[in-house]
Design a protein that fits this description.
Distance between the termini: 58 Å
Largest sheet: 9 strands, mixed
Oligomer: single chain
Number of helices: 12
Low-confidence stretches: 1-23
Structural class: alpha/beta
Shape: globular
Length: 300
């Protein structure tokens, strides 16, 4: 086999991100390190669980009903070989299941999209939603949020050959994809009001539209675009640095739930214990060439 064929079969493609660092597309998560971290997570005392009606209900049921995704490479990806989900969001959910139930595997998964996240909580189909879920006033009218546990900004993804779009300032008159039900439409209305916005129901549909040339750019959370590149999105690149206001990710809970205080206390504990930083490094840092662990956002 030729050197060229070996390189092609190994899927070693390098992408330059806004920071100028390089990382290999398709780098898998270190499953052994990830699983060991979750297995070593803290377990709440019986009194701590009993102090929360929300946590007590989960304890009595024996499973944590999780609303999430299983196609997000950095945040929550299903490994079809062993049937396990791994990533930054998945890890926090599993650590929370361990904190309440003593076992991170005791989760019951429900797939959600940007348009269904509030409804599954309102319908009591899940106990929480953990899915790169931006905290917004409109959503907070329908549900409650714990966190934030992470922050991001918006970014622009274009084809690698695109030289016309260098930043969001170049989107006027361009066909721009974003997700329906996400913060993307509002971000575009504020920063690129002359863009021709096309809303898609899922992240994958928006990526496909860009890949197929049906749109000129895709605007959404920077972390989701990093996720796409880390998976091996093909000949695509980020146009300049992230922009706009900091986008706080929260954990969705039923409206008025006392689970907010319980989950915030859990987040403070895993941050103080260094588990948050270790999870970030395994799920995101090692796979995107990022060595500087971010500071977790302040919790209420």
């Amino acid at each position: 086999m030729s050197i060229k064929s070996v390189l092609k079969s190994a899927v070693v493609a390098w992408v330059t991100v806004a920071s100028g660092s390089l990382f290999a597309q398709g780098t898998p998560i270190n499953a052994a390190a990830y699983d060991a971290l979750v297995a070593q997570g803290p377990v709440a005392s019986a009194a701590t669980v009993a102090s929360s009606t929300w946590a007590s209900k989960i304890k009595q049921a024996g499973t944590l009903r999780l609303g999430g995704t299983q196609t997000s490479n950095l945040f929550s990806l299903l490994n079809e070989k062993d049937g396990k989900m791994r990533g930054f969001d998945a890890g926090l959910a599993q650590l929370l299941a361990r904190y309440i139930l003593g076992d991170g595997a005791k989760t019951q998964f429900t797939q959600v999209t940007s348009s269904t996240r509030e409804q599954v909580l309102i319908n009591d189909q899940v106990d929480l939603v953990l899915a790169t879920y931006s905290i917004t006033p409109a959503r907070a009218e329908k549900i409650s949020f714990a966190g934030p546990y992470y922050t991001s900004q918006a970014a622009v993804l274009v084809k690698g050959s695109n030289k016309a779009i260098q930043s969001y300032n170049d989107l006027a008159g361009k066909k721009v994809a974003t997700q329906a039900g996400s913060t993307g439409p509002a971000i575009l209305a504020q920063h690129a009001p002359k863009a021709v916005v096309q809303e898609f129901q899922t992240h994958q549909e928006a990526l496909d539209a860009l890949r197929q040339g049906r749109v000129d750019a895709y605007v959404t959370d920077h972390t989701l675009l990093l996720n796409a590149l880390s998976l091996g999105a093909g000949d695509m690149k980020l146009a300049a640095a992230p922009f706009g206001a900091q986008d706080p990710y929260g954990i969705g809970l039923p409206k008025g739930s006392d689970g907010v205080a319980f989950v915030n206390a859990f987040l403070k504990k895993v941050e103080a214990d260094g588990i948050w930083a270790k999870l970030w490094t395994i799920a995101i840092g090692e796979r995107t060439g990022s060595t500087a662990v971010p500071t977790p956002p302040a919790l209420p």
